[in-house]
Amino acid sequence: MPKSTKRMEQMPVLHPDAAGVDIGADEIFVAVPPDRDTKPVRSFLTFTRDLNDLVDWLQRCGIRTVAMESTSVYWIPLFQLLEERGLDVCLVNAQYVRNVPGRKTDVSDCQWIQYLHSVGLLRASFRPTAEICAIRSLWRHRGSLIEMAAEHVLHIQKALDQMNLQIHRVLSDITGQSGQRILDAILAGQRDPLLLARLCDARVKSSQDTIAKALEGDYRGEHLFALRQSLAGYRYYQTLIAEVDQEMARYVGDLRTTSESEAKLPPQTKKTKHRRQHHEPTALDLRSELYRIFGVDLTDVPGISSVTAYTILCEVGTDLANFRNASAFASWLGLCPEKQISGGKVLYTKSRRVKSRLAIALRIGANSLHHANNYFGEFFRRIVRRLGKAQAITATAHKLARIVYHVPLKSLIAREYSKNLRRRRFAALKAASASRPPNSASRSHRQRGHEFPTQQNCLDRVKTECLRKAAR
Fold first, then answer.
1. Where do the H-state alpha helices sit in 274-356?
2. What tens digit of pLDDT does each residue of 281-331 get?
3. CA distance 109 to 146
4. DSSP-derived secondary structure letter, 20
5. Alpha carbon distance 430, 439 (integer Å)
6. CATH code given to domain 18-118
7. How far is Cα 384 from Cα 377, in angstroms, rounded to an integer?
8. What pTM was estimated for this model as a whole?
9. Are 137 and 127 in contact, with CB atoms under 8 Å apart?
10. Taking the domains of the chain in order of start, what are their residue ranges?
């Protein structure tokens, strides 16, 4: 009796003109379909000339789409070059292209990537437009400069501690106007504590006697030398940050103005007025520019400051149509639980570990809502009582992420905050209050310590309703 043979059915090829690339620091391995070249797997060096040869070879083989997997920033030069040549580039997560157990080499990796991409099993990572990528690079570079400047601030504090000068413990910010005036006077040779204390601004809360006591120390030459260099290093990085701000202002000014933005910035409905943060760029008005680009004042959302809104612009841009819905956007940020079930048993329910600057910014904004007197503050405190502060920060950041998704795409708050809608809501509340009995109802209402809704209360209700709708 003949032995029955089983034929292995192959998956249908969805992208026949697909190539796979495995990128390293010194060498790049590329795989094309076996019928396109006698040598379907080749290696290239990472020099610019070799990258051009790589793209020329792909075009000769009739390749239209390329999937690549890489770590760090080694993929950026090849990615940009492929885009300039008109090829569709798919940058995939390294976790999605894990090979089957067995021998692992660079050749097998690029062949495995090519196969997965040809049968349509790979999803491209999100990458904003070229204009947003340029602003994002400058914004991340600016963050690195701020971290380097902070290192010099620590060196300043260390030098002051070694001389037993406690001025940085009396002043809230040693790099402020008062602190820098005192440091300059110390480096100029001034040692009188009373004269140094008079250099402080009148807004300093500490008394001059306390500041004078903090300026009594052991002024040693080696520590003064370290203090001088650390202060010079801090100021040098401040000049670099100012140059980056001017360059970013030029790139942001070239972004297209949305058709939904009005000529005048709408008034902010937050109870606390907008205040410029410590590291906020000074070369441009972030709130006005963000309103011009988005068409919506994102800083009016609780927990989102101007720096957070600018981080949203730099990380994802204004077009979030690449994400299916708000849930996919929150999952991309790692702000929702990833449930893993095996055999009917839940194995894992925590959120994924995602290194996202936007997710960090939203978590910081969510943490600031701990004592907020609004819907988000109530939600944050309720989750804290149930699950703890860490889970409350993630859950509140998840709500903020859903709002961020809905606001630029559908202009939810802009539409709900239109003048006609506010006028109708206020008229409805006014009519409802007028329909009550004029004496007994109003008297009992005032006896309970309440008042009839004003126009500002109506606006607050409309805002809370809009934010709740967007957070669902």
1. 286-294, 306-316, 326-333
2. 877 788 888 888 888 888 888 888 888 989 999 999 888 888 888 888 998
3. 39
4. E
5. 16
6. 3.30.420.140
7. 11
8. 0.78
9. no
10. 18-118, 132-253, 286-412, 414-471
